[in-house]
Design a protein that fits this description.
The protein is of the alpha+beta class. The protein contains five helices and ten strands. It has helices at 8-16, 33-40, 76-84, 94-101, 122-125, and strands at residues 22-25, 48-55, 62-69, 72-74, 90-91, 118-121, 130-133, 139-143, 154-157, 161-163. The strands form three sheets. The protein has a five-stranded mixed β-sheet with strand order 5-2-3-6-9. The protein has a three-stranded antiparallel β-sheet with strand order 1-8-7, with no helix packed on it.
């Protein structure tokens, strides 16, 4: 499969930091976590969602990229606010995510984002391998989560995310 299906900034970062990965092609309509995992038979506990968080009530606004498993819920109100040193933060909308990362919701990845803090939930690091966005809605990356440590600004955080309720079908932006 050609690597040209990756977003160029992601492809460049993979090469620059020597990250080992495999590309998975994805139908854009199936890029969101639940649909992707169901169609491509990827367990939710191996799906790593990348979420841009914004604290807009401070000047200048603060942003962080957070990586959590599909079986967990990012703790924005406490843990992320604590890490950013703010009282209020929320998930960035699609427009802000595109402006800050150059990536579409459903394909966002920490790889290629060099100018923001990257917080990775410790549960992600305990996986043998993970699947995460390729920077667009037509590709995903499979990699050993330890490869994320090669990126600048990465911090592994215990308790960044909490387990989702058993019956919850709500998924955060990827």
């Amino acid at each position: 499969m050609s690597e040209t299906i990756l977003l160029p900034i992601v492809e460049e970062a993979l090469a620059r930091y020597g990250i080992a990965y495999t590309i998975l092609e994805c139908t854009p309509e199936l890029a969101d976590t639940a649909a992707f995992c169901a169609h491509y038979h990827v367990p939710l506990d191996q799906s790593a969602n990348t979420i841009l968080v914004a604290a807009r009530k401070v000047e200048p606004p603060k942003y962080a990229v957070c990586v959590v498993l599909g079986t967990t819920r990012l703790d924005v109100n406490q843990k992320v606010c604590e890490l950013l040193g703010v009282k209020k933060a929320s998930f960035a909308d699609a427009e802000t995510t595109m402006q800050r990362t150059g990536m579409l919701i459903g394909g966002v990845t920490a790889i290629g984002v060099d100018d923001l803090p990257i917080y990775v939930d410790s549960a992600v690091m305990r996986c043998a391998d993970i699947v995460m966005g390729g920077g667009n809605r037509s590709s995903k990356l499979r990699l050993d989560p330890q490869e994320l440590r090669k990126l600048p600004n990465v911090e592994v955080i215990e308790g960044l995310a909490k387990p989702k309720a058993e019956n919850s079908l709500t998924l955060h932006n990827e």
